[in-house]
Amino acid sequence: MKLLRDIIFIKRLVLLSFVGILTFVAPVFASPQQVTPVRSNTKTAPLGKPNKTTAIPDDVKNGPISSNNKTAPAKGSPQDTAKTSDKLEYSAKDSTKVNKKDGTVYLYGRARVIYQGLELDADYITYNDKTKNIFASGVKNSKGKYVGRPIFKMPGQGNSIADSLRYNTETGAGKIFGVFTEQEGGFFSGGIAKKQPDDEIHSKGQLYSTCNLPHPHFGIHITKGIVTEKQIITGPVYLEIEDIPLPLGLPFAFFPKPNKKSSGFILPSPGEDYTRGFFLREGGYYIGLNDYWDAKILGTIYTRGSHQLDLTSNYTKRYKYNGNVALTYGSNRYGIEGTPGYAPVKDFSVRWSHSQNANANPGSTFSASVNIASRGFNKRTAVGGYYDPTQLSSNNLNSSISYSKMLFDGLFNLSMAARVDQDISRGTTTLQLPDMNLGMTRNIYPFASKNTIGDPKWYEKISVGYTMQSSNTVTAGDSILFKKDILNKFRNGVQHNIPIAMNFNVLKYFNFNTSINYTERWHFQSIRKTFLRQTAGTPDLVKIDTIPGFNRYGTYTVGGGVTTKIYSTAQFKNLGRLKALRHVMTPSVSFGYTPNFADPKYGNYLPALYGGNPNDPVRDQKGDPVYYAKQEGLLYGPPGTGSSANISFGIQNNVEAKVLVPNDTTGKGEKKVPIINNLSITSSYNLLAKSFKLSPFNVSGSTPFSDKFQVNYQAVLNPYVVGDSINKFNGNRDYFLLDKYTWQRGRAPRVTSFGFSFDYSLNPEALKRRNDTEQDRKMDAIQKGLTPEQSEALAKVSRDPNAFVDFNIPWNFAFRYSFDYSTDAVGRNRRITNSLSFNGDANITPKWKVTFDSGWNFETNSFAITRFGIYRDLHCWDMSFSWIPFGTQQMYSVDIKVKASVLQDLKLSKRKNYYTRY
Q1: ∠ Cα 725 730 733 (to 5°)
Q2: b/e 125-151 (16+ beta carbons within 10 angstroms → b)
Q3: Beta partners for 218?
Q4: What φ, ψ does residue 771 adopt, rounded to 5°?
Q5: DSSP secondary-structure letter at 171?
Q6: Per-residue pLDDT for 157 more than 90?
Q7: Where is the composition biased (Polar residues) (predicted)?
Q8: Is the dihedral of CA 563, 567, 568, 572 positive or negative?
Q9: CA 38 → CA 11, 65, 212, 671, 833, distances in Å?
């Protein structure tokens, strides 16, 4: 079996080489693209005596003359007005000389000739009116550098550049020497090209490569060929590496030469999967619909009955939008034939990404980030073969399609979205279809005067806002999500919010605010409960009916608050470099009152009745009537029970030090160092609560230890004493809260929750580059109109060591740690969770880099998904090795490939996927 796999591997290498040659040559001649002149790889021939000739393709276009395919005239020269005139037009910037004896015109310095569609620019041009010959070349400047090479455009062709050329205007024949041009990421060099009178071009000994060196590392050697208007016919072509011709080639080739995208077959890659057998992977057909839209249909088949179909499409409209769609469907068989595990397992994936240019349609945006897959797709297919550790370990898939538009001169913003959230571990899906929001972008001041002089009146400071939210959502299992009955399980409603506020200063240093916040909620159904009495000791049965119909209720809160800042500074003279400490406190107090909207007079809560009999109410253990809410279980739920009069209070602290810096280049000799950032303590007190009026204290803040190391922390403190008693039924000790404060017994409040986190990079240059890259990515996302989901996806690609390797950073090691401790209200059921992740890379040599990323799972006391990588820069090629040595996702891959995307199929890959270990 091993020998058979080795034979398949060698066959695959040979087949990939042939595929590479086809993909090498076909894009070069099939789709004219922009060219860029680069340094010639030949020695400059004396004028009129070229010492080396090089072929140039006939279909190169969009060269460096100008962006509109029209050769720009030299400065000071006449405009190009007669492109197809029979009269030869010429000009030169420096000088023009005419030899009347032999009929030769000499043009020096940015010379230009136009004749019947031929456009030619060079620093030196001669034209003989008797022989009808044109010769053009560059010149050597004072430093001996060859400059001003000919740039020319033939009728119906694009721009090209050469060392020198000859052309006969009468016969239409010509020769071109010393060409080295770039086209679609590739370079032409060497050979001889001759233009025939019938506009055919005959070439010989031409080399095409994606290596940009004057002497390429590799290339496709075209022995000879004929280029016509619509096709290219070549003789033998073969692969050449380091000037060594390889026995990998084709005896002849024929290529159409359309001026648009062309369609064609995509050859599959052979191989073996230990579980599913031998395969032909990703063979199919490419459809070049037009310049803005294409599609690719790929199929994979296995000898043991598995198969997969992929459809991908890219679309774009310049300055408007771009996106891509990818659909995958697979039926895979695992295990041994004849066993239950051999039954086909069907998976699917739908991905759609759409982004709109920020300037395409000011005032409105449309975006989409869709990622929907079957429950086992990521695990069974290794995330489509990308082995993304984040997605492999993720249990959630999120998708959204959104549209927003500014209304009424930007006063309102309307946004609509459809969202799908999948919980893969539970097999449930939440649909929000649609989710709509309408809100004011700024508050208005209805009583403000347009011509206010001096300070505004108190009533002119009153502001009013408005927001509206509506949603239609359902959560269900994957198996019943798309069944007809699911329509009855949707929860929907509309919520309106109108805040009215007024801010003003009191006694100069206090900022006071008052507000009234009104909220109204609409539902389109309500519930009714009917209770059925059971025997003693058995809970009552409850029958719940959903009643269609409009159902609304409104709530409001009245409140106000005051805040100020308190500054304190301590100066030091004899504490070394410490010169001062500054403490800024921001205390705040606010009050809010909410009536009891559960009162039966509001009609939101109904009495619980046995059998619907108003004379037989349900009572609690104290004998009081029991009520239930009509909106129970609906989208926004019922109003809260009980009235509240909360006094919320808190204090925020910032501490910084002023230290001496002897080597400060600014001359000030000191700098500010933060010690504590935003350390806040908040709580509230409900005046109307019958017991436990004080809420737990919430503490949060951060402490920076250096410019690149900061610890964030948070905690919850419970102020109530814990009591206990013996349970008379089971003999266990029960714990409960007493309505007494811990400080009444000389104790501090109890910590029921605590956590902290930090991340650190040992290489400050890597951290700086990471932050700069993150900022550049965010700005790029804003300019391209990307959604947050698409931006995050782009960030993941940028963080992938196989996608981008930065050799400018010699080494880096970074890690992140988080710790969380929590208990219940009485201090029991303690739980500690923490996580550690780390990654790094190092340059072994200027061309070798190793990378790794891993983490530690404290619950299982084992490593998280750990991946090692090695990258080798081979100039125009690269080699990468990726390895997950242990765990459930074990795999390795080795790739040697050409860097240029135009030759993406010219590669050699060896992989062992984690699902082939059976």
Answers
A1: 25
A2: bbbbeeeebbbbbbbeeeeeebebbbb
A3: 241
A4: -65, -40
A5: T
A6: no
A7: 35-44
A8: positive
A9: 38, 14, 9, 51, 59
| Token pair 């500074």 in the structure block, residue | 569
Among 158, 165, 190, residue whose Cα is nearest residue 34: 158
How far apart (Å, rounded) are the C-alpha atoms in residues 799 and 777? 12
> Taking Cα atoms as reference points, which of 228, 209, 86, 208 lies closest to residue 157?
228
Site of tokens 């619980």: 608
Long-range contacts, stretch 701-707, CB < 8 angstroms, 24+ apart:
701/653, 701/676, 701/677, 702/676, 702/677, 702/678, 703/675, 703/676, 703/677, 704/674, 704/675, 704/677, 707/764
CA distances from 150 to 61, 168, 180, 238, 872 (A): 15, 16, 12, 31, 39
Window from 135-149, 207-221, 680-694, 800-814 with minimum mean pLDDT: 800-814
DSSP 285-320: EEEEEETTEEEEEEEEEETTS-EEEEEEEEEEETTT
**Three-class SS of residue 600?**
helix
User: Which pair of structure tokens corresponds to residue 241?
Assistant: 């590496």
Q: Which residue has the higher pLDDT, 781 or 864?
A: 864
Collect contacts of 908-915 with beta carbons under 8 A, ≥24 apart. Answer: 908/13, 908/16, 910/9, 913/273, 913/382, 913/385, 914/382, 914/884, 914/888, 914/889, 914/890, 915/273, 915/275, 915/334, 915/380, 915/382
Render pLDDT for 598-624 as a digit per residue (tens, 0 to 9).
998 898 999 999 988 889 999 888 888
Residue type, 899: K
Residues 806, 812: Cα–Cα separation, whole Å: 11
| Residues 848-863, mean pLDDT to the nearest whole number | 85
Tokens of 720: 């109530």
- 170: left (phi > 0), else alpha (psi -120 to 50), else beta? alpha
DSSP letter at 14 equals: H
- What per-residue confidence (pLDDT) applies to 709? 83
- In sequence order, which residues have a C-beta less than 8 Å from that of residue 644 and are 6 or more positions away? 592, 593, 594, 686, 688, 689
Tokens of 845: 């040599």
CB atoms within 10 A of CB 436: 16
Distance of CA 890 to the CA centre of its chain: 27
Of 32, 417, 31, the closest CA to residue 262 belongs to 31
DSSP assigned state of 487:
G
Q: Is residue 138 within 8 Å of residue 117, measured between CB atoms?
A: no
Higher pLDDT, 21 or 207: 207
Contact 394, 443 (CB under 8 A): no
Q: Which pLDDT score, from 0 to 100, does residue 266 have?
A: 87
**Local structure of residue 197 (DSSP, 8 states):** T
The per-residue pLDDT for 347 is 87
Query: Pseudo-torsion of CA 272, 273, 279, 282, nearest 10°?
Result: -110
Is the pLDDT reported for residue 582 higher than 80?
A: yes
User: What would the two tokens of residue 721 be?
Assistant: 């004493």
846 C-beta neighbours (distance < 10 Å), count:
9
* C-alpha distance across the termini of the chain, in Å: 15
> Which amino acid is present at 68?
N
Report pLDDT for 476. Answer: 83
Is there a contact between 467 and 438 (Cβ–Cβ < 8 Å)?
A: yes
Contact 159, 63 (CB under 8 A): yes
- Whether residue 672 is predicted with pLDDT greater than 50 in this model: the reply is yes
Q: Are strands 133-137 and 164-168 parallel, antiparallel or unpaired?
A: antiparallel
- Extract the tokens encoding 476: 């269900």
Question: Which tops the pLDDT comparison, 405 or 198?
Answer: 405
Tally of residues, the chain:
918
Neighbour-count burial for 496-518, b at 16+ CB within 10 Å, e otherwise: bebbbbbeeeeeeeeeeebbebe
Cβ contact 54:176 at 8 Å: yes
